[in-house]
Amino acid sequence: RGFLPSIGRLNRYRPPREGHDGGVTVRIDSGVEEGSEISLYFDPLIAKLITHGPDRARAVEAMADALDNYEIEGVAHNKPFLSVLMDHPRWKEGRLSTGFIAEEFPDGFTGAEATPEAVNRLAAVALSIELAERQRRSTTPSPFRNGKGAGDDWVVRLGDHRVPLRTVGDVMLPEIAFDVAMPGHETPVTVVSDWEPGDRLWTGVVGDFPLTVQLRPAVGGIRMLWRGLDLVARVMRPRIAELDELMKAKPVADTSREVRCPMPGLVISLLVEAGQEVQAGTPLAVVEAMKMENILRAERDGTVEAVKVKPGDVLAVDAVILEFA
Q1: How is residue 227 annotated by DSSP?
Q2: Which of 58, 78, 170, 186 is the least buried, fewest Cβ under 10 Å from its Cβ?
Q3: CA dihedral 36, 38, 42, 47 (to 10 degrees)
Q4: What is the mean pLDDT of each successive set of 10 residues along the chain, which is 325 residues long?
Q5: Four-residue CA torsion sign, 105, 113, 16, 72
C-alpha cells in the first residue's frame, strides 16, 4: 500500500536475538513489546534493526537472516519489502540514491518474485510439516517411521504453483530428516529440521541451503512467509491434486465503484456530496493519520452516488468512504 502506516495491536512480537557472534552484530532499537498498541496518533515506527559485519556482504546477509526470524503480527509492516531489498543486486553493491525505490520498483512493491528454486524449497518445507503432523496424529507413534512416508508421491500447491515431490528412502521422525526428489534437481535433496508441530518458525536445511520460514494457520493448509514471499501451502496426494485443479477460483469482488480508505485514520472533512459530478483528481475527503492530513482524490470521472462516512469517524483500512454511480 505504498508504505502507508498501519495501526493495531502487536498480537505477536518476537524480535530476533541480539548480540555479537562470529564477527557479526545484531541490534534492535524498539519502544514496543508484544501487546503494545500502534496508534494512529503517533509515529508508526515499530523498531530499528541494525546489523554490522566485517564487510557489507556479511552485514546484509545477517540482516536478511534477522528479518527471517523477526515475528510481527497484528499490524501491516514493511518487513517483506526489507527482505526483498536484502537480495537486490544494487542494495548488495551499495549503489544507492534517493531515487532507488522509484527506479527499481516503478510500479510499487507487490511482493517477492516466487522463483522456481524458492518455491521448490518451500514445498519441501511444507512436505516436512505435513509428514510431522501426520506422525503426531498417528495412533501408533514411533520415533522411526519409514513405511508410509518413504517412496510416497505428493503435490504441494503454493499459491498458483504446483510442485510434485517424492520421498526417497527412510523418513526419520519426529526429528525431521528425509530425502526428496523435486523438480530442477537430478538427485534427491536432503531436508533436515528440528521443527515440531506447533512451532511458528521452521528452521532447517533444504539441500545445502539453510532457511528459516515463518508459519501461520490457514484454511486447509499453512501460510508460509519467507524472504518477502507470502504463500499458502497445501500438501496433497496426486489424485487429490488432480481434483483440486478442477475447483473454480473464488470470484474477486468488484470494488471499482468504491473509494476506500487506504490507511487507518480520522475523517477530518468531506469535500463532495451525493449527486455531485467529479473529475479525476478532484479532492474527495481529508483523512488524518499519524499527525498528517491526507487528501483523497478521485481516480476517474464520475458521479458520487452515496457518501458512507461523516467527519469525526475513525476508519479502518479499506473502509468504504463513498460510492460512484
Answers
A1: T
A2: 186
A3: 80
A4: 79 96 96 89 85 97 98 93 97 95 92 95 97 80 50 92 93 89 94 95 97 95 97 96 88 88 92 95 91 90 96 92 94
A5: positive
- How many whole angstroms separate alpha carbon 82 and alpha carbon 270? 35
Dist. CA 37–CA 7, nearest whole Å: 8
Residue listed under C-alpha cell 530428516: 177
Q: How far apart are CA 324 and CA 301, in angstroms?
A: 9
Residue 285 β-bridge partners: 270, 296
What are the grid coordinates assigned to 15, written together?
Answer: 524480535
Taking CA atoms, 206 is separated from 129, 144, 151, 177, in Å, by 13, 20, 18, 10
**Stated length of the chain:** 325
Q: Is 84 helix (H, G, I), strand (E, B) or coil?
A: helix
List CB contacts of 81: < 8 A, sequence separation 6 or more.
3, 109, 228
Query: What pLDDT does 174 receive?
Result: 80
Residue ranges and CATH numbers for the domains of the chain are: 8-104 (3.30.470.20), 116-244 (3.30.700.30), 258-324 (2.40.50.100)
Measured between its terminal Cα atoms, the distance across the chain in Å is: 25
What is the helix (H) or strand (E) element at residue 157, kind and residue range?
A: strand 153-158
Q: What is residue 111's three-state secondary structure? A: coil
Can you tell me whether residue 307 is helix, strand or coil?
strand
Read out DSSP for 172-223?
ETTTEEEEEE-TT-SS-EEEEE---TT-SEEEEEETTEEEEEEEEEETTEEE
Block residue for cell numbers 530499528: 48
8 A C-beta contact, residue 39 and residue 290: no
CA-based R_g, the chain, Å? 24
Structural element, H or E, at residue 168: strand 161-172
Q: In degrees, to the nearest 5, what angle opens at C-alpha 55 toward C-alphas 48 and 13?
A: 25
CA neighbor of 204 nearest in space, from 217, 195, 196, 214:
195
